[in-house]
Write a structure and sequence with these properties.
Transmembrane segments: 263-287, 328-347, 420-439
Order of helices and strands: HEEEEEEEEEEEEEEEHHHHH
Signal peptide: 1-22
Helix content: 40-55%
Pfam families: Neur_chan_LBD (PF02931), Neur_chan_memb (PF02932)
Radius of gyration: 47 Å
Number of helices: 6
CATH topology of the largest domain: Acetylcholine Binding Protein, Chain: A
Number of domains: 2
Subcellular location: Postsynaptic cell membrane
CATH architecture of the largest domain: Distorted Sandwich
Shape: elongated
Domain Neurotransmitter-gated ion-channel transmembrane: 270-394
Length: 449
Amino acid sequence: MWIETDIYILLLVVIETLAIYAKDLDARGGDRNVTVKRRKGSRGRRPKPNWLGERTIKIRGKDIKYDKRDSPHGSDPTEVKIGIYINTFYSISEQTMDYSVNIYFRQTWYEPRLAKKDKRKKGESGMIKLADGMWSQLWVPDTTFRNEKKAAFHDVTIPNRLMRLYDDGKIWYAMKLTVTLSCPMNLAKYPMDTQFCPIMIESFGYTKSTLYFNWWDTPVATEDHLEMPQFRLIKSHLIDCSQNYSTGAYPCLQINFELKRDLGYYIIQIYMPSWLIVILSWVGFWINVDAVPARVTIGLLTVLTTTTQSSGARSSLPRVSYIKAIDVWMSVCLIFVFSSLLEYAVVNVMSRKQTQSTSFNMNMRMRRKQLAGMIGSRKADNMGSGDESSGNSTKQMKATMPDWDGKRKARMIDKRSRKIFPCSFLLFNIVYWVVYGAIMKDTPPVMGG
């Protein structure tokens, strides 16, 4: 009995031991599988290409060892010539003081390491077009726009970049860009102003010891029929804007576009309506003084219209601290129409005061004549009722009796206003257009280094 129990216990121990061993084998087998997979994965990886340092590039069917980190001329600075071709100007904004331009940006420099050493064969071109993306494998100038707010390359339908290589090692690199650039504006003569909007081309990381900029023979070229809604491109001014920073002296070239604002839109939309409103305010000088509703309506209508027009004309302008030409114009027009309204107020008050005084004197004389002509007791008895009726008549005559002297003075003021107001407004126009159109000059902002 005891022997059977011991055998039973021994069998249980052996079975449990075998189960533990089997679990251990499974665990080891799983680890091996994982290890093999990782090794296979690691063997399948390809090292990333190293774009830095010396590498082999293929130019004209030949392999050339090239390091894009080295300057083309070693320790000597490289000359980079710059030119732009303007496709369109658009979105010239006074509110944000910037403008957008679509250009072809062109750069040329010499790369002696890529110059053709053997002679050119007969019928062979002296220039080749490099493949797209080659600009990322060669040394290129790190040009940037110092006053740039936003810029974008064009990739429709292919990347709009072009790189050519000549036999002597000259590289011609062009790209199509749309750039939004800041343009500090002086609006003191607005809308008779001329703005100078710059484009500043600077090296971002290379100092003058590595490269320097020069202009092309034709630095700025434009479309034959370049048009803008409110401006005309007069000319382009070339400036050297190189500047010293804490890390060195960096080359920079600047183009100032002289943009003359067209006045036609503002004459039609602002100046002509203002002239008509001011002239309309003078119509009241030919209307009778007693026509209170007509003259008050004309005065209030012209004042409110001028105020509304003034707000609309300045809604698209920034809140600058100095006075603009449009501010002077609208303010003086408001003064003229408001003065016309005040002129009628003065005329009306003077006429009413004179009418009351004169009417009282006339009624007193009429009352005396009535009293002197009455005789007899019956007439004397009726004098009291006559006095009452006479008093009532006096009061009534005092309220309704016109005063020709007061009206004559009111008409005299209106007649003089008919000459004073137009002559004053004409004199203001002469001074305004001479000062802002001929005497005051536009000066370009100083943005160079």
